[in-house]
Amino acid sequence: MVNPLRPAILAASSSPRMKRLLTGFPVTAQIVRRFVAGETREELLAVAAALSAGGRMVSVDFLGEYTTDREQARDTLDEYCALIRELAALERPMLPGTTAQPVEVSVKLSALGLTLPVDGPAVATENLHLLCAEAARCAVWVTVDAEDHTTTDATLATVRALRAEFPWLGAVLQAYLRRTEADCRAFAGAGSRIRLCKGAYREPHDVAFRRASEVTASYLRCLEILMRGSGYPMVASHDPEVLAAAERLVAGTGRASGDFEYQMLYGIRDGEQMRLARADNAVRVYVPYGSQWYGYLTRRLAERPANLTFFLRAVASNS
Ligand SMILES: Cc1cc2nc3c(=O)[nH]c(=O)nc-3n(C[C@H](O)[C@H](O)[C@H](O)COP(=O)(O)OP(=O)(O)OC[C@H]3O[C@@H](n4cnc5c(N)ncnc54)[C@H](O)[C@@H]3O)c2cc1C
Fold it and tell me: Whose Cα sits closest to atom 43 in ligand 1?
């Protein structure tokens, strides 16, 4: 089924007027707290420490995207480098049976300059290189998030180039894109760390599946390719159908629990995250923080009409 509200909510994610309206409601802050660890690094570190202590790994996202000037891209890089150093100082035990670094950062190339009007790809690549060098020094991993489809080629080319020096550098593939089965084949080789997600942006019909059933079917085809390959799949989904399929594929391909990981978003299906972790699976929680939470929040609202209803009801009763 297609969620009829999804296009409208995703359109709001790029509307400055809507942003001003939503951020003006005091209750918005409470809702943001469900999905975002906080606005400061200090708040983030407390959440990351608690998750690590409870046996879950983390991937931290400093919120911000579609940076419009070089200075801002540089500031984002500086924040990531400071974040990496502080994450490295956390107590972060390796999970038994896995060689995965328990602490990772996730970064959007558009936050590092990819969409700058001049030299965007070169600036983003240079910034990502500096970020990876700091991460390597601190034994923290990095995964490059997937953004809208106009950035896919540049993002994958950048990851491919930097993996020669940083072989642990991960990429994200979005199952709703029609191209992704082919990308999974290209990235299923040894050493490749691929996070497979459904995809969260508003995409045209000619590049992306729109129906939920088609997206899930594509996800399952892509997951099978990654699971049968020799890389390290990262199963990023909350969908029970996907999680059940992952379990079957793990059994069918003879993968051990350290040969792949589950990933979920902070604040979503926390009980299921803990259940999987207690059953000796590697589970990583994607934890965003920072003041630029608007785009992230609208994508979470678009995924689930119930979240939007909850949000609107809270706004109505508090305004
Ligand atoms: C670790 C991680 C990293 C991600 N990185 C990216 C990325 O780089 N690029 C990108 O485009 N997308 C990214 N996503 C988002 C992803 O593309 C989907 O939009 C999102 O995960 C919802 O898809 P789903 O597989 O959980 O299935 P869905 O079919 O959307 O959801 C299945 C079930 O999960 C629960 N659920 C899902 N979403 C929510 C929600 N917002 N609130 C409450 N419950 C919910 C509900 O129970 C729902 O029925 C990431 C997701 C994860 C988990």
Answer: 268
